[in-house]
Write a structure and sequence with these properties.
Blueprint: E1 3-4, E2 7-8, H1 18-21, E3 27-29, H2 37-44, H3 46-54, E4 61-67, E5 87-92, H4 93-102, E6 111-118, H5 119-122, E7 140-146, E8 149-154, E9 159-166, E10 169-174, H6 212-217, E11 220-224, E12 229-232, E13 237-242, E14 247-254, H7 264-274, H8 280-295, H9 318-332
Parallel strand pairs: 1-11, 2-3
Antiparallel strand pairs: 3-12, 4-5, 4-6, 6-7, 7-14, 8-13, 9-12, 9-14, 10-11, 10-13
Domain JmjC: 112-269
Pfam family, one: Cupin_8
InterPro entries: Cupin_8, JmjC_dom
Length: 334
């Protein structure tokens, strides 16, 4: 039921305008990084792609996820959600690539996955040959590599430009408002510290998860080839599959907000602590407070207060954020 994602064919890096990089809908950019040497090497052969990646490795230890063949690349919980179905280990990247190489032709291979690893730390010099210019943005650039994988649907706060450099990847995206239809697991215990959908996208159980059918009616899907890229807006749910026995994704992510702002998930956890168990009338009263001061704030909520007296209702800056953070931390110690 998912619909195809909007695409631009033959995209050049010059196509990365602010209109694209601040969009609120996902977009596939076909061929955006087709000129990258890693893309060309991986298209010649998987072994050449692995050899090219090794050129830049200098011994940095990475965090790797290793799972048995029976999980079929789906990094998930164990049966009772008391643990996970994989092992997380610290390892050398070249050792993980050795394992991927050993199992290239194995249809029932163990699964190996290295995710969210900073490129400049792990592969110094890689971006001298394989990079994008995002203007005045200062993105975090990460590498994700391994063999076949299925990463459950989750959200990220930053905007994300993900570039497929080796292997094929399938992306299934959902707008943020599909939260209740995706059956999200524990908020404080998740495979990569990001809450995930409990639905197996390959075998969705619509008896256990009936609203997932509605989520799929709003889904957008795209299969990307080496050289393609996808822009994923902040907070869109995304399920990602690495479809080949060697895959590399390079992603750029950045926030459209000042660095002094805290992660909103901290507010969610504090709200669970302070608001969720209130009597319903009190919760409704606080809902109105948040609507007024946060979700529909436009400046008018403090217009009747002299500017020097507006305190936290005035514009935020680094110093005020530090002061507020210190005050909140002091209150949390009670």
């Amino acid at each position: 039921m998912a619909k195809p994602m909007r695409e631009i064919s033959g995209a050049l890096p010059s196509a990365l305008t602010d209109a694209i990089l601040t969009a609120t809908e996902p977009l596939v950019l076909r061929g955006l990084v087709a000129s990258w040497p890693l893309v060309k090497a991986s298209l010649r052969s998987q072994r050449e792609g692995i050899a090219y990646l090794r050129r830049f490795y200098r011994g940095e230890v990475v965090r790797a996820l290793i799972g048995p063949p029976e999980i079929a690349g789906r990094y998930f919980y164990n049966d009772d959600i008391s643990g996970f179905n994989f092992d997380a280990v610290n390892a050398r990247l070249d050792a993980i690539l050795d394992q991927v190489l050993e199992h290239l032709d194995d249809p029932c291979a163990p699964t190996f996955y290295v995710g969210s690893t900073t490129v400049d730390t792990c592969l110094p010099g890689f971006r001298d040959e394989n990079d994008l210019d995002l203007g005045d943005r200062d993105p975090l650039v990460s590498v994700w590599t391994g063999n076949r994988s299925r990463i459950p649907a989750h959200q990220d706060l930053p905007d994300n430009l993900a570039c497929v450099a080796a292997g094929r990847r399938r992306f299934t995206l959902f707008p943020p408002e599909q939260l209740s239809n995706l059956y999200i697991g524990p908020l404080d215990f998740a495979p990569a510290n990001q809450p995930i959908s409990l639905v197996d996208f390959h075998r969705p159980d619509l008896v256990k998860f009936p609203r997932f059918a509605e989520a799929m009616a709003h889904a957008q899907v795209a299969e990307l080839l080496p050289g393609d890229a996808i822009f994923m807006p902040s907070m869109w749910w995304h399920h990602i599959e690495g479809l080949d026995s060697f895959n590399v994704l390079i992603n750029y992510w950045w926030r459209q907000s000042p660095g002094y702002m805290d992660a909103p998930v901290n507010t969610l956890m504090h709200a669970i602590l302070t608001l969720r168990e209130l009597p319903p009338p009190q919760r409704l009263a606080w809902q109105e407070v948040f609507r007024h001061y946060i979700f529909e704030a436009d400046g008018s909520e403090a217009a009747h207060i002299p500017e020097p007296a507006r305190g936290v209702l005035g514009p935020l800056d680094l110093d005020k954020a530090r002061s507020m953070r210190a005050a909140i931390m002091q209150k949390l110690k009670r």
